[in-house]
Amino acid sequence: MSRRRLPIGGVQVFSELRNEYDVYVDKTMHIYEMAEARRYKAVFLARPRRFGKSLLCSTIESMFRGEKELFEGLAVSKTDWQWNPHPIIYLDLSAENYTENGLERLIGTLSSQLDRICNNYDIPTQKNDTISGKFIHVIAELFQKMGPVVVIIDEYDSPLLNTINQTDPNARLREELRGFYAVIKQNEKFLRFAFITGVTKFTQVSLFSGMNQPKDISMMPDFCDICGVTQEELEENFAPEIEKYAPKYGGKENYLYKLREYYNGYCFTKEKTSVYNTYGLLNHFTDSAEFNPYWSLTGVPSFVLKYLEARKVNAVEIEEAQMEAGKFGDYRENTITLFPLLYQAGYLTITGYDEETKLYKLNYPNVEIRKNFAEFLSHNYCEAEETLKTSVSARLVRFLLNGKIDDFMNLLKTYLQRVDYSLSSKITEYYFEFAVSNIINMLGLVCVNEAHTANGRMDSVIFAGDYIYILEFKVDKPVEDALWQIEDKDYALIYADSGKKLVKTGVIFSREARNIVEWGVA
User: Does residue 436 carry a pLDDT above 90?
Assistant: First the structure.
């Protein structure tokens, strides 16, 4: 099979993708549903960075421009979509960094983008006016010249996230944006459709208070896969790549399982549909099917770093978080809380929903995110990062790669004496499980917590070369209890055809010693 041209690097222009690349995962029916079938006047969508929001905006733009030829063979071409061209106001607030002189940069960015739209449509520009005044002017002129206007605002929250730790600049930006977005409400009679995207719902309520609240589709089941790739879409659109690389990983079933574990798992609704991060998938296939943290390597967003560092977050409390539905977007003025922030940044995802308590369960979506975030969270342990840069890390990895579980546990026990357990008031099995998996992930190996099987959930699974280690953790209990659970639940069955050597290990921690006190191998 000749290598197909995949749109790696974040191709954000729909026409470019359709004309120059071999794959497009069709999301046009979603656009039809929200803009035509349901006739929403204004729509808001929150998704993490590099999840295809900008491409979605560009696709909406092309549909409303009437570029019918680009949509041949796609789902929308089989509907009654009207291909009449509409004037488009497309604004991208991610085009500038607002950490210094934020208000001036915001005014300059929006002013220059509005002036460019005037030039593109050959309508007069308006000088020496506020950005809100310019916005009103452009809408009115376009409506008079071409009819109902479509407004697209990409990354609406970028100025606010850039200044999340700057109270006064953030407040001034928020006030300016509140007046700017109020223009949409004031000129609703001139609009055909408005689409607004961002990473988070941060300040959405107060920011859009001057306009009718846009329809928030961020957690609506019908639009849960409007960004990202479902399992069905993966197997349909990337069948040639899957067929090519499956032998490298022991066949199609094993390969698809590994893809799911590493790149899938993002869920934006209480329904069970989850999606892959497109950026990671495309880079994986282009890089000869190597399993690398491509999305994570683009860096932890600065606003997440600022928040975590400023508030001295307890790392252990992040896992198995729970949150009420209203808390996903219940922010007031310049306040934001940890779990909504990590969820909307892409580091936590919905893993379950309790109908009785009405609580959402949150956890890391996949192996890639767990590994990447472990490296950042390692700062919460005293000297953990520096210690692992020494020969200790090489020895730990070597022991695992060579099946020397006793040597590994002895060295790990010595290392755990350096861990600052005062970071958590809860010394539980899960806490120790997290501490161990965090160390393994920092070593560059893959450690998956709470791995599901048909009979239950394994505490941790370590993948190290020719070996797979199945770990069951207990606190202040006999090691036989842990080993019995591994055998009783037949945890190893899922890896029986992997061709790897399976090491089933029970690990016992002591609350008093705050360390490993015993282990055994089945």
Answer: no
